Model the fold of this input.
Amino acid sequence: MSALAFAAAALVATAPPAQGPTEANRALITAFAEQFYARRDVRGAFMTYVAPDYIQHNPGIADGRDAAIAALEPMFSGKNARFEVKRIIVDGDLAVIHLHGRAALDNPGGAVADIYRIKGGWIVEHWDVMQPMPAHSKNSHPMF
Done:
């Protein structure tokens, strides 16, 4: 084996593995979550990461990126609103963001699981499941 071929083989052997769809989608959804939930920059997050023809499965919001922005900006703009991401789970083209959302500091809020489908580097579809925080629990297990 020539020195050049040996060097090329060594580079290939030590190169990091190619990033698969789960890893690429994890990076995308993590960046989206930071901008959307932590910084509450609804418009910026949706313009950067969400496809214009976004499919919405929440019956209270119309399809499309612009409709989502219009519906979510008022909810996220309250100065005391809080959206604390507890975990992000990604498998292939699907991502779940489990969070504690509160409209105000004096509101216990609820647990939310936002489910997103990613295609071609864009969030293209959304489902959500919401569970209000009860005043009393019948067990000692935390919701998060």
Q: What stands out?
A: Strands lie at 50-56, 82-91, 94-102, 110-119, 122-132.
